[in-house]
Amino acid sequence: MTDSRIKWIAGSLVALVLAYAWIDGGEEPLRPIAEPVSLPEAKQ
Question: Which pLDDT score, from 0 to 100, does residue 40 have?
Fold first, then answer.
């Protein structure tokens, strides 16, 4: 395989992943945080 063919295949895979992420993005809402999280005390 030539170097340019590898670049075309890698570029196509990246484009497919980006297209999938663009189409699927935001379809499933994030779940709300049900409980507050305690933070450690800040040392001064």
Answer: 86
